[in-house]
């Protein structure tokens, strides 16, 4: 990784978005103090994570990418075990309500569904009442209903005023949960902004498609209104229809895929000389 | 919480998880009792030619006690720590303010309590069914042997986790090490049936000296109730295990 320059504000949900292998987990593990960095400066809650101690750990919560739970402890017991590690834990019943597991409070972790286990995982990171919460790919491998459950739990964190650092490879997840998004690909930051203005979609070329007899016609334009007016005007003048007319703008997903495409593909798309592809 | 209260807190939850884990309870509690009963039934009435002749049923009480202590410490720790490590549970715990040593102390406490319970259980069974007397007059020697053995085998179990790459490999590796040593050390087969060379070989490993020390304390014949030489061998293995554990123990999963 190189040139990773991030700043996360207190109280915001920050999404670190990128494909698998882009360097998200490496980055988050450096911020969590699990991994030593080879260079650069990192300050989390005013301290260098490599040197931070117990006091600092009182103020952060971590949900790992693949963290299973003790299968033999119940929801309440798992939270109780972790509550004991902190000086001023949040009341356990309150945490159970936050993660919506009231009905499962006395059920062992092994008997919970995937989505429920993930919510308990989030609860264990919350029980110490941290200021900053790290969530590493919280919904990878989930079915849609489990994802929805996990999202609701994460959305609830915003209301608690927590700062959340979220990594994900799902555009829709970042869009739905985050105040600000930074996109990483191949160890480098390729875009940053709010989910709305990410990738500057308004100024991206739109595509007009229609059929002319058997032929599919596709026109890319940055001056959509004018081009559309010319096309439809010409068709009306000929007394013809434009079959299957549709206008599409790039979706967030398109922007994301283009930004994170491997270097060779990106250079072809830009029509750049192949030899100058960024390495 | 003070550090001691924190260890007690961790220990309390480790106990809960241990007694609810069917595999741990079977191998640590049921298995030694079943093995003792089978051996006692098969060899009842015969004597083992050691210390001028000891009844086989008496011989097997300290033998299976030694096995139980090793099972509760080395085997349980190696298995449960590897599973917790690969589950990411050790890594998660390291992300909290809990000091690492508290976690390890809780687990060791759990192992030692289970080991002591097994001694009491086997002593009660041996006494009730085969009138094997409990050596009350040698309680200090017995406890010293237990403490040195339990501590050493805990260190060896924690060190062994470094050699186990995955959850699936935990049981095969632990058993491949311990089962042959149990046979070669006179724990399953009475030692007067084993060729002298086998015992000499087994004396270099920690199981045989621990069993011998335990036997001396439990069945005090003419000899010394504290087998200093044997306890030293066990202790050296323990210190080696401790150094290896400090150097090679890891908190993060090795697979994935």
Q: How large is the radius of gyration of chain A?
A: 24 Å
Low-confidence segments of chain A, ≥5 residues, pLDDT <50? Answer: 266-279
Distance between the termini of chain B: 35 Å
Strand order of the largest sheet of chain A: 2-3-4-1-5-6
For the largest interface, the chains and their residue counts are: A-B, 28 and 25 residues
Estimate what percentage of residues of chain A fall within beta strands: 15-25%
Radius of gyration of chain B: 18 Å
In short:
The complex is a heterodimer of chains A (279) and B (256). Helix content of chain A is 34%, strand content 19%.
List keywords for this structure.
heterodimer, A: 279 residues, alpha/beta, 6-stranded mixed β-sheet, 3-stranded antiparallel β-sheet, 9 strands, B: 256 residues, mainly alpha, two-stranded antiparallel sheet, 2% strand
Give the SSE map.
The complex is a heterodimer of chains A (279) and B (256).
Chain A: E1 13-17, H1 24-32, H2 54-57, E2 60-63, H3 75-83, H4 92-98, H5 114-126, E3 132-136, H6 144-159, E4 163-168, H7 171-177, E5 180-185, E6 188-193, E7 206-212, E8 215-221, H8 224-238, E9 243-248, H9 252-260, H10 263-269
Parallel strand pairs in A: 1-4, 1-5, 2-3, 3-4
Antiparallel strand pairs in A: 5-6, 7-8, 7-9
Helix pairs in contact in A: 3-4, 3-5, 5-6
Chain B: H1 3-19, H2 22-43, E1 47-48, E2 54-55, H3 56-86, H4 89-94, H5 100-130, H6 139-160, H7 167-184, H8 196-202, H9 207-218, H10 228-248
Antiparallel strand pairs in B: 1-2
């Amino acid at each position: 990784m190189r040139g990773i320059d991030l700043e996360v504000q207190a109280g915001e949900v920050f999404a670190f978005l990128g494909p698998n292998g882009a360097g998200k987990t490496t980055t988050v593990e450096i911020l969590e103090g699990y991994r030593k960095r080879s260079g650069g400066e990192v300050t989390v809650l005013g301290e260098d994570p490599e040197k931070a101690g117990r006091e600092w750990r009182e103020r952060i919560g971590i949900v790992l990418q693949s963290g299973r739970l003790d299968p033999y402890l119940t929801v309440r017991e798992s939270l109780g075990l972790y509550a004991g590690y902190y000086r001023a834990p949040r009341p356990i019943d309150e945490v159970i309500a936050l993660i919506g597991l009231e009905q499962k409070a006395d059920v062992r972790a092994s008997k919970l569904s995937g989505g429920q286990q993930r919510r308990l995982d989030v609860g264990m990171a919350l029980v110490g009442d941290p200021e900053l919460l790290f969530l590493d790919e919280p919904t990878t491998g989930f079915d849609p209903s489990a994802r929805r459950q996990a999202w609701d739990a994460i959305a609830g964190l915003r209301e608690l005023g927590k700062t959340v650092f979220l990594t994900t490879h799902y555009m829709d997840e970042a869009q739905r949960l985050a105040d600000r998004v930074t996109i990483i690909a191949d160890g480098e930051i390729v875009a940053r902004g709010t989910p709305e203005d990410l990738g500057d979609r308004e100024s991206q070329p739109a595509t007009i498609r229609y059929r002319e007899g058997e032929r599919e016609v596709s026109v890319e334009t940055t001056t959509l209104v004018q081009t559309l007016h010319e096309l439809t005007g010409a068709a009306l003048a000929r007394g013809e229809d434009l079959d299957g007319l549709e206008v599409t703008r790039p979706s967030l997903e398109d922007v994301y895929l283009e930004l994170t495409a491997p270097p060779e593909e990106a250079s072809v798309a830009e029509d750049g000389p192949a030899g100058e592809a960024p390495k | 919480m003070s550090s001691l209260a924190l260890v007690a807190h961790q220990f309390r939850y480790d106990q809960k998880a241990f007694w609810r884990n069917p595999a741990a309870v079977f191998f640590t509690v049921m298995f030694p009792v079943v093995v003792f009963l089978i051996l006692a039934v098969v060899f009842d009435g015969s004597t083992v030619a050691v210390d001028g002749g000891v009844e086989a049923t008496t011989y097997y009480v300290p033998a299976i006690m030694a096995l139980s202590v090793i099972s509760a410490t080395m085997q349980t720790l190696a298995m449960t720590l590897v599973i917790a490590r690969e589950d990411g549970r050790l890594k998660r715990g390291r992300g909290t303010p809990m000091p690492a040593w508290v976690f390890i102390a809780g687990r060791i406490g759990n192992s030692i309590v289970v080991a002591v319970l097994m001694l009491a259980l086997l002593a009660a069974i041996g006494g009730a069914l085969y009138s094997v007397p409990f050596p009350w007059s040698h309680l200090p020697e017995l406890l010293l042997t237990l403490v040195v053995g339990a501590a050493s085998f805990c260190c060896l179990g924690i060190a062994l986790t470094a050699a186990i790459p995955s959850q699936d490999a935990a049981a095969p590796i632990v058993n491949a090490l311990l089962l042959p040593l149990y046979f070669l050390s006179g724990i399953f087969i009475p030692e007067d049936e084993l060729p002298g060379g086998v015992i000499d070989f087994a004396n270099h490993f920690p199981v045989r000296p621990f069993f011998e020390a335990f036997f001396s304390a439990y069945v005090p014949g003419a000899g010394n109730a504290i087998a200093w030489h044997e306890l030293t061998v066990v202790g050296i293995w323990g210190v080696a295990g401790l150094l290896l554990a400090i150097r090679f123990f890891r908190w993060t999963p090795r697979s994935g």
